[in-house]
Amino acid sequence: MTRNARIPVPITALDQDSTLVVVLELSAKSWLLGARIPGLSRLSRYPLKPSVDDVCDLLGKMKERAAAQGKTVTRVIVAYEAGRGSF
Structure pTM? Predict the structure, then answer.
C-alpha cells in the first residue's frame, strides 16, 4: 500500500491534550452528550434537547473550557449510539 503524502500521519493515535472526545446518546425526546475535555480530569455529561444547534454551541463552550486550562483543541471526535433504528 502506498502512502498519500497529502494525508498527515499523526505521531500518536489520540493526543489527549488536544482532542475533544464526544459521545452522543440520541432519543426522540432528549439527547445526552458525554465528553472528555482536554485539561479537565473528569468526564462531563450534558443533557440536551434534540437540537444540532445546541450541540454545536456546546462544542464551542467545551473548546473555551479547554482553552481556559491552557489546552488548544485541534481535533474533535464524535461518536453516537445507533439506537433501535440502527441508522
Answer: 0.76
How would residue 3 be classed by pLDDT, with cut points 50, 70 and 90?
A: low
Whether the CB-CB separation of 28 and 83 falls below 8 Å is answered with no
Q: Region 52-81: what's the mean pLDDT?
A: 94
Question: Could you tell me if residue 39 is left (phi over 0), alpha (psi between -120 and 50 degrees) or otherwise beta?
Answer: left
Compute the distance between CA of residue 38 and CA of residue 63 in angstroms, rounded to an integer: 9
Instruction: Return all residues near 36 (Cβ < 8 A) that are at least 6 apart.
Output: 16, 20, 21, 43, 44
Q: What DSSP string runs through the chain?
A: -PPPTTSPPPSSS--TTTEEEEEEEE-SS-EEEEEE-TT-SS-EEEEE-S-HHHHHHHHHHHHHHHHHTT----EEEEEE--TTTT-
